[in-house]
TrEMBL record:
The chain holds residues 1 to 700 of 1173 of the full protein. It comes from Mariniflexile aquimaris. Belongs to the prokaryotic molybdopterin-containing oxidoreductase family. NasA/NapA/NarB subfamily. The keyword 4Fe-4S applies. This is Molybdopterin-dependent oxidoreductase. Its cofactor is FAD; [4Fe-4S] cluster; Mo-bis(molybdopterin guanine dinucleotide). Residues 3-59 form the 4Fe-4S Mo/W bis-MGD-type domain. The keyword Membrane does not apply. The lineage of its organism: Bacteria, Pseudomonadati, Bacteroidota, Flavobacteriia, Flavobacteriales. Keywords: 4Fe-4S, FAD, Flavoprotein, Iron, Iron-sulfur, Metal-binding, Molybdenum, Nitrate assimilation, Oxidoreductase.
Length: 700
């Protein structure tokens, strides 16, 4: 018998599906899709529909603070007072001795906006360092730079409503059929009703998304920019560009035109491994469509040339004038549920809240004034991978890790282990003992999870939703905002005396007034009574903004969108050689989420892809004398992985694929894909190059 039902939002991916939660008389929860929700209309994917198992099973939860006084002693249970007093005393003493840049916070795209905001205020405003970064660095930072360079701000112009208005989709470096399933279901339904709708997928793997497409361009990894430029060249030659849009609303076209004409379609075809006719076909599908949407995710972002890949793709929307009108636009698919909310509050080492710029003195002064502090440091903080480099070198002494598991998710994980061992003080604030990172903590703080705390999140289409607290957290676990505020007060900082998440949200909302992401008229009451809203919501009774740039005024100084010319059309990753002849690309599987601390608890989610396997092309398998099912040893300059082989032409020749979810806790050290991955990052976005590591593969 269900006592009560409430509406909330799924805590997994950036699609942001609405969920109805029901509780029984024993306070066990059940979930179902919210039929009235504008995103999912009642549908849920396998991860979302099994969320209640994750909540009801508390066997892995961290129940009380644990601390150790030295590395030679085990951690012991302590009170919250002892835990946070120790944290404050260690942070004070390290900062006094080594300066504010000797400490750092590493947070998460799964944190709620209020948590993100308060951690950012604490670090940048009061600790006096910009050393706060987030696992969104591994996910979205190349897209952020791409949008900023093209439109002037990190602004996703599109809405899910545009899906049903478009007649051509270019899905590239993404497998939404598995990783954004409900969004992909909407595309499938749209195509089922409108068979003329065209879907192009660009991916080195034949994924479920590619299988549904009208055209799959199975490119050689790392050749994306050349392929997008070749498509642009065909569009130009066929007269399928929007000259009026280019002339009146953009800048930089001539330099771009020069670059796209520097490589012939024939040469591009050879470099990319894609038939010339398919490149021309893709250009026709795009150029002849009335509404063209591009969608992308990690295949573009996680690259040593991630920023250039993003701008090269965005150029296809500009050259066709497909921005700011119904059924069109470039749509980056956010991996995590609140990656966008984190960007709004400036939750990265090079950003300030409300899309202000850390490099802009006036912006720093405005933010400092708002928080009542003397100044914000002009020095960019350490990004995710830089933090662990600095721990390893000893420049960074203490790190506070909240809601993320870098021991599985960061590249070259053996190096992350040695960095953590070298840290003087490690705080891990999390919900689960199954996080590999907990093993390295001097202080473990139990955090409340989904349904155990309230706050807001923003999905991929700028849609803000309110998530209510419905159940009590187990043991002594507390909401992250309470933990951060309590610590800040013990550090002696004013400005953290909040009584609720709502008060924090209100402070943040007032900060947005007059900005491009203004939500100063969107309070908790409206979110609770009227549902979700897409930012900006700049006026009283404003219904939210479905689509940006309808007036063709972009956020650049000239108000024009900018064609960016790729600094390098070549991939700058370390190329395969005699010792490491293959390219490893990593990614996700349908029923697992990140490092499996949540989805790994649900038996029915393990049946689809129970253990990690290496996907290898039949030609590469033959050359390496590997048969389907053999145990293989994959080696790179950084480490080793041993898993069974799956011989399949789903993966292009010369490339192998491993899923990224498995860590030591769940299987063994030898299943962890990031043992292998290289440490290159994009020079601007600082996003790691997960999709291109040279490796060797042999039968074990
Ligand atoms: Fe949750 Fe994403 Fe699945 Fe929707 S598509 S139910 S948001 S995991």
């Amino acid at each position: 018998m269900h006592k009560k039902e409430v509406k909330t939002t799924c805590s997994y991916c950036g699609v942001g599906c609405g969920i109805i939660v029901k509780k029984d008389n024993n306070d066990k929860v059940f979930v179902e899709g919210d039929k009235d929700h504008p995103v999912n209309r009642g549908m849920l994917c396998s991860k979302g529909m099994n969320l209640h198992y994750v909540v009801n099973d508390t066997s892995d939860r961290i129940l009380y603070p644990e601390m150790r006084w030295s590395r030679s002693h085990p951690r012991e249970r302590v009170s919250w007072d002892d835990a946070l007093d120790r944290a404050a005393s260690v942070f004070k003493s390290i900062i006094k001795k080594h300066g504010p840049d000797s400490v750092a916070f590493y947070v998460s795209g799964q944190s709620l906006t209020e948590e993100y905001y308060i951690a950012n205020k604490l670090t940048k405003g009061f600790l006096g360092t910009n050393n706060i970064d987030t696992n969104s660095r591994l996910c979205m930072s190349s897209a952020v730079v791409g949008y900023k360079k093209t439109f002037g701000e990190d602004s996703v112009p599109v809405s899910y409503e545009d899906i049903e208005l478009a007649d051509c989709f270019l899905i590239t470096g993404a497998n939404p059929a598995w990783c954004h399933p409900i969004l992909f279901r909407r595309i499938e339904q749209h195509k089922e009703k409108n068979p003329h709708v065209k879907i192009i997928v660009i991916d080195p793997r034949k994924t479920d998304s590619a299988n549904f497409a009208d055209l799959h361009l199975q490119l050689i990894p790392g050749t994306d920019i050349i392929l997008y430029n070749a498509i642009a060249r065909c569009l130009y030659k066929r007269g399928l560009i929007d000259e009026d849009f280019i002339k009146n609303y953009t800048e930089g076209f001539s330099a771009y035109k020069e670059q796209i004409f520097a490589t012939s379609v024939k040469d591009a075809s050879k470099i990319c491994g894609v038939p010339e006719s398919d490149i021309r076909k893709a250009a026709d599908m795009i150029g002849l469509s009335k509404g063209f949407i591009s969608m992308w995710a990690m295949g573009l972002n996680q690259s040593a040339v991630g920023t250039d890949k993003n701008t090269a793709l965005l150029n296809l929307s500009l050259i066709t004038g497909q921005v700011g009108k119904p059924g069109s636009g470039p749509f980056s698919l956010t991996g995590q549920p609140n990656a966008m909310g984190g960007r709004e509050v400036g939750g990265m080492a090079n950003l300030l809240a409300v899309h202000k710029d850390l490099q802009n003195e006036e912006h720093r002064r405005e933010v400092a004034q708002f928080w009542g502090v003397d100044q914000i440091s002009p020095k960019p903080g350490l990004t995710a991978t830089e933090m662990f480099d600095a721990l390893e070198s000893g420049k960074l002494k203490a790190i506070w890790i909240a809601c993320t598991n870098p021991l599985v998710s960061l590249p070259n994980t053996h190096r992350i282990e040695s960095a953590m061992k070298n840290a003087k003080f490690v705080v891990v604030q999390d919900i689960s003992h199954k996080s590999d990172t907990v093993a390295f903590a001097d202080l473990v703080l139990p955090a409340a999870g989904w349904l155990e705390k309230e706050g807001t999140m923003t999905n991929s289409e700028r849609r803000i939703s309110y998530l209510p607290k419905e159940i009590n957290a187990p043991g002594e676990a507390r909401p992250d905002v309470e933990i951060f505020c309590d610590f800040a007060q013990r550090m002696g900082f004013r400005g953290f005396n909040f009584n609720s998440a709502e008060e924090i949200y209100e402070e943040y909302c007032s900060m947005t007034k007059g900005t491009k992401i203004d939500i100063s008229f969107l309070n908790y009451d409206r979110l609770k009574s009227e549902g979700t809203f897409q930012w900006p919501v700049p006026e009283h009774r404003h219904a939210g903004t479905q689509r940006l740039f309808q007036d063709k005024k972009f956020y650049t100084p000239s108000q024009k969108a900018i064609f960016n010319v790729a600094t390098s059309i070549e991939n700058t990753s370390m190329q395969p050689n005699g010792m490491y002849p293959l390219v490893l690309t990593t990614g996700r599987v349908r029923d697992q989420w990140h490092t499996m601390t949540k989805t790994g608890k649900v038996s029915r989610l393990k049946t689809h892809y129970p253990t990690p396997v290496l996907e290898i092309n039949p030609v590469d398998a033959y050359l390496s004398k590997i048969k389907d099912g053999d145990i293989t040893e994959i080696k790179s300059e950084n480490g080793v992985v041993r898993v069974r082989a799956k011989v399949t032409d789903n993966i292009v020749k010369g490339c192998v694929f491993l899923p990224m979810h498995w860590g030591k806790q769940l299987q063994s050290d030898l299943n962890r894909a990031n043992n292998l991955t290289n440490t290159l990052v994009d020079p601007i976005s600082k996003e790691p190059d997960f999709k291109f590591t040279r490796v060797s593969v042999s039968k074990y």
